[in-house]
Design brief:
Layout lengths: L16 H11 L7 H14 L3 E5 L2 H12 L6 E5 L4 H8 L4 E5 L10 H6 L5 E4 L11 H11 L2 E5 L7 E2 L2 E2 L6 E5 L12 E5 L5 H8 L5 H5 L19 H11 L2 H24 L4 E2 L6 E2 L6 E3 L3 H13 L15 H6 L1 E2 L4 H5 L4 E3 L10 H12 L6
Bound molecules: pyridoxal-5'-phosphate.
Length: 383
């Protein structure tokens, strides 16, 4: 039975991947910093308006780079939502800083600006909002908080390529932003990511830290005869193979985003009667946000209902997925970080969350099937 399931996710393929990979192989020099890397980075700059985009091996890798750039270390605190992937926290914990987990807003599962404000101490150095599901956090409030307390604002936009807030692309509003091109994202290259540098004063150092602490970027640009080791460094640039695959995907950003948004709207429409009947909730998108259809999430009354819904959808041939466990309750989160306040939403909502199939090419009948199955399961509220 399982093999017949409509999967929760299937990576998008533009059709140009194999051709671009062959070009990269023909060029023979597969190391980082070639033509495909340059084209990907230029597309990301054009799309986001960032001062500079640097490809990385993953969003985790980009967050690690951001952590080094921000200069946080032992004794410093970094505020982030508890409901996120481990990398948002571990990148800063690796520098010796303490992740401080705060609650999320129940409607969006994005960081609650009031909870972030309440967690600020004289040791706070950075604020790391996560744009869950490709829906923006309240960037007006977070920007104000960062300005007022002179904090580094670093956007974890792992899920957010193609999405915006008041017309500004996500990842372009903090001093730094990070993107993921993992296979599960809207666009990907298996494993990949990017650091967006929005503050021009950070560009030169970011290029140095990105490439093993060396001035190799200046050497490549022909500005110096030899490069030198001048700072701390990571080995972050991916090979041209990853960049070739990624370019074939990035070129289709508009199409993929539009298709995913259409599917998202179809789910929203099909499930509206169940939402109105109070049987479930869908994740909210505030009016000033343009989401990218990364996730369609349902919140049930409790974990038991969520699990029954997942089983019923599986029986109808649809694979669904859960998501993050709250980090403040995880063993490493408790050891390496601390929670501020009670975090009622981050503690309970993940146990009620279910994600529906979301990828470029989900059959058109799926939203109606979901609505029918869930309507039958929870009281016959048929669309
Ligand atoms: C919010 C968030 N941040 C960071 C990451 C890490 O991304 P990557 O797998 O590219 O390292 C993920 C992965 O799903 C994520 O959801």
């Amino acid at each position: 039975m399982t093999t017949d399931l409509i999967p929760f996710h299937r990576p998008f393929m533009s059709g140009n991947e194999a051709r671009y990979l062959q070009h990269a192989l023909d060029a023979a020099t597969l190391c980082a910093g070639g033509a495909f890397t340059a084209r990907c980075e230029a597309l990301l700059v054009a799309h986001t308006g960032a001062q500079r985009a640097l490809l990385t091996h993953s969003c985790t890798n980009a967050l690690e780079l951001a952590a080094v750039l921000s200069g946080v270390g032992p004794g410093d605190e970094v505020i982030l939502p508890s409901f996120t992937f481990t990398s948002t926290a571990t990148a800063f914990a690796l520098r010796g800083a303490t992740p401080v987990f705060v609650d999320v807003e129940p409607a969006t599962l994005n960081i609650d600006p009031a909870a972030a404000a309440a967690a600020i101490t004289p040791r706070t150095r950075a604020l790391v909002p996560v744009h869950y599901a490709g829906t923006s956090c309240d960037m007006t409030a977070l920007q104000q908080l960062a300005d007022q307390h002179r904090l580094w604002l670093i956007e974890d936009a792992a899920q957010a390529i193609g999405a915006s807030y008041k017309g500004q692309p996500l990842g372009s509003m903090g001093r730094l932003g990070t993107l993921s091109f993992h296979a599960t994202k809207n666009l990907g290259c298996g494993e990949g990511g990017a650091l967006l540098i929005n503050d021009p004063d950070l560009v030169e150092r970011a290029e140095i830290l990105h490439d093993k602490g060396t001035t190799r970027a200046q050497f490549r640009a022909g500005r110096i005869r030899q490069y030198d080791w001048v700072d701390l460094g990571l080995s972050a640039p991916p090979s041209e193979l990853q960049a070739a695959h990624l370019l074939a995907q990035l070129e289709q950003l508009a199409t993929v985003t539009q298709q995913r948004r259409l599917l998202w709207q179809a789910y929203q429409q099909a499930l509206a009667p169940l939402v109105q009947a109070g049987l479930l909730q869908t994740l909210h998108v505030p009016v000033d946000c343009t989401h990218n259809g990364h996730i369609f999430g349902l919140l049930f009354a409790d974990g038991g209902q969520r699990d029954r819904a997942q089983a019923a959808l599986a029986a109808a041939g649809l694979q669904t997925a859960l998501h993050y466990q709250p980090l403040h309750l995880s063993p490493a989160g408790q050891q390496l970080g601390r929670a501020h306040g009670a975090l009622p939403h981050a503690s309970t909502l993940p146990g009620r969350l279910l994600r529906l199939p979301m990828w470029h090419g989900v059959p058109a009948a799926v939203p109606e099937t979901v609505a029918r199955v869930l309507g039958d399961l929870f009281g016959g509220a048929r669309p």
